[in-house]
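Troubleshooting: if your tokenizer reports a length mismatch, compare your output against this known-good record of 160 residues.
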Amino acid sequence: MNKLNIVGLLVGFLYPLLVVPIVFSATLTLQIQGHENKSGQLNIAISKVKGLLTDEVQWDDLESVRKLLQDIGPEHAQQATVQLIIEDLPIGLICIRLYLDLNNNQLLERSSIGIPLEPVGFSNNPSLFRGEPTPQDSCFLLQETANVQMVKLKQHKKRK
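Known-good structure output:
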């Protein structure tokens, strides 16, 4: 084999590696709890932090990565945990917000003062005592391996 053939083989072999961009993606196992005895549709919003995560970053500043809908029927309502496998997510700081749409109208029902009337949840399960948590409270680092996030749905309890 002469040098020209070897160079041709090398270029033919390496060219796809040089042209195809390297995509870093990860799989997330999302475990959802707090839906017991409730049926509806889970609305899941997955967002990514674009730059640095500072005190000033708000939910609207995040880049939407994926929006998912998952039916929670009577068969799921009896389970303690609903598990979803979400593939091809970008590696980096990720925030998840979700709610269980009990009346399937694609809207998060709120009281007259803005309190969610349907079960809501956030990654890292931050306190909802002071209202919607910030992205800082809800973001986590999605890595190439072993990503599991458990989200506990919480619903405002009506006063008697």
